[in-house]
């Protein structure tokens, strides 16, 4: 079995009618395929949109609301209704489902991140199917992940999945908009995500993007940097999930980094908030970027911001002012300032285990999305 642990992401359009209301028939189609894959031995996670769609009608709204409070209220009602549908359908096939609601803070806080990963691990070991959504009812802008494509990639990386499948209304990434450009061709295999790929998805001022493709490229970057391959394909087929699991569907396949980031490195790269800046000399820059060593206090030439011991900071080259990476510090900013003034700065400042270099792909993720 090539892909044992698979994360599927389905969008709102995959489980709703044209009027935006929840489609029980579409949910049954999805759960039928999940059940077949589950009984075949796969470990499955479903990241599903649709809470607002499931709830707005019950609150008397004639169409999907646009105000934040209205959407949050609809999500509060709809999350239970959505889970009720998934639970009933999977239960009829003898499968236990589990609801998990996450937001950005669950990834940014290291302890919460580890706890979520541990809970998901137990659920999968016990042969349950976790169904995950963003916690829309309580998430305000600074807590929101923002889209379930990104959430699905974060979950896939967290649990070290074997495959992430992003189901959408278009069968992959095209060189242009296939709806308006007859010369647009689908990219079946993407080895590296770069500025050109982002432009094709609708970034960098391009008007080519369709099907929310830019958020899918962001998701693919997070997943592939973490060693998880990504498959973008259409959800319109009745057997879409099963075909994707067998890599038989028409779609775009993103090749993962050969040696994916470990969980600790993922957390540092993608989720840990930087509390300050540290500037280092050329010797320290070589030690970090080329020699795989820890950052010593003797290599630090300046700092900015206020941070405490074990906070995350961004480290910059003092010569070029370009970011080199992120790491957790063993001295707070006040102690560093005293050491620099005394000219007796010694010892390890950032241990190699608490360091992540910023690769070109990670730099794209931090600057383009």
Keywords:
369 residues, alpha/beta, eight-stranded mixed beta sheet, five-stranded mixed beta sheet, elongated
Description:
The protein is of the alpha/beta class. It contains 13 helices and 15 strands. It has helices at residues 24-39, 51-55, 68-91, 104-108, 110-125, 148-158, 195-200, 213-225, 240-245, 263-271, 282-289, 333-342, 360-368; strands at 5-10, 43-48, 97-102, 129-134, 163-168, 189-190, 230-234, 251-254, 274-280, 295-296, 300-304, 312-317, 323-328, 348-350, 355-357. The strands form three sheets. The chain has an eight-stranded mixed β-sheet, sandwiched between helices. Strands 11-9-12-13-15 form a five-stranded mixed β-sheet, with helices on both faces. A two-stranded antiparallel ribbon has the order 10-14. α1 (24-39) links the parallel β1 (5-10) and β2 (43-48). α1 (24-39) crosses α3 and α6 packs parallel to α8 (213-225). It is elongated, with a radius of gyration of 22 Å.
Write the layout of secondary structure elements.
Elements: E1 5-10, H1 24-39, E2 43-48, H2 51-55, H3 68-91, E3 97-102, H4 104-108, H5 110-125, E4 129-134, H6 148-158, E5 163-168, E6 189-190, H7 195-200, H8 213-225, E7 230-234, H9 240-245, E8 251-254, H10 263-271, E9 274-280, H11 282-289, E10 295-296, E11 300-304, E12 312-317, E13 323-328, H12 333-342, E14 348-350, E15 355-357, H13 360-368
Proportion of β residues?
A: 15-25%
Count the beta strands. 15
Task: Choose one word for the global shape.
Answer: elongated
**Which runs of at least 5 residues are low in confidence (pLDDT < 50)?**
204-211
Give the overall average pLDDT.
87
What is the subunit arrangement here? single chain
The span between the termini is: 34 Å
Structural class: alpha/beta
The gyration radius over C-alpha positions equals: 22 Å
The description of the largest β-sheet is:
8 strands, mixed
Helix content: 25-40%
**Helix-strand topology string:** EHEHHEHHEHEEHHEHEHEHEEEEHEEH
């Amino acid at each position: 079995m090539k892909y044992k642990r698979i994360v599927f992401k389905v969008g709102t359009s995959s489980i709703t009618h044209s009027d935006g209301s929840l489609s029980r028939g579409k949910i049954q189609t999805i759960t039928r395929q999940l059940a077949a894959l589950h009984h075949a031995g796969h470990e499955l996670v479903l990241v599903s949109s649709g809470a607002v769609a499931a709830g707005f009608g019950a609150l008397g709204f004639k169409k999907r609301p646009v105000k934040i409070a209205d959407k949050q209220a609809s999500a509060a009602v709809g999350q239970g209704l959505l889970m009720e549908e998934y639970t009933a359908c999977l239960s009829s096939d003898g499968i236990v489902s589990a609801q998990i609601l996450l937001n950005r803070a669950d990834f940014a806080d290291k302890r919460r991140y580890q706890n979520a990963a541990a809970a998901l691990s137990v659920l999968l070991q016990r042969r349950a199917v976790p169904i995950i959504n963003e916690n829309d009812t309580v998430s305000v802008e600074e807590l929101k992940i923002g889209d379930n494509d990104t959430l699905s990639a974060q979950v896939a990386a967290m649990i070290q999945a074997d495959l992430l499948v992003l189901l959408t209304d278009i069968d992959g990434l095209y060189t242009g908009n296939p709806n308006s450009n007859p010369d647009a061709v689908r990219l079946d295999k993407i080895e590296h995500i770069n500025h050109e790929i982002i432009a094709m998805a609708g970034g960098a001022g391009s008007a080519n993007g369709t099907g929310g493709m830019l958020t899918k490229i962001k998701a693919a970057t997070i997943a592939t940097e973490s060693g998880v391959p990504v498959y973008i394909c259409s959800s319109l087929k009745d057997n879409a999930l099963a075909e994707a699991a067998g890599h038989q569907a028409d779609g775009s396949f993103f090749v993962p980094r050969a040696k994916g980031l470990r969980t600790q490195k993922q957390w540092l790269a993608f989720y840990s908030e930087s509390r300050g800046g540290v500037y280092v000399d050329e010797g320290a820059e070589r030690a970090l970027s080329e020699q795989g060593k820890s950052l010593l206090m003797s290599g630090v030439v300046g700092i900015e911001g206020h941070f405490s011991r074990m906070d995350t900071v961004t480290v910059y080259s003092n010569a070029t002012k370009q970011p080199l990476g992120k790491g957790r510090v063993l001295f707070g900013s006040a102690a560093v300032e005293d050491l620099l003034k005394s000219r007796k700065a010694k010892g390890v400042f950032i241990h190699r285990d608490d360091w992540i270099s910023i690769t070109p792909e990670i730099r794209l993720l931090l600057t383009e999305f």
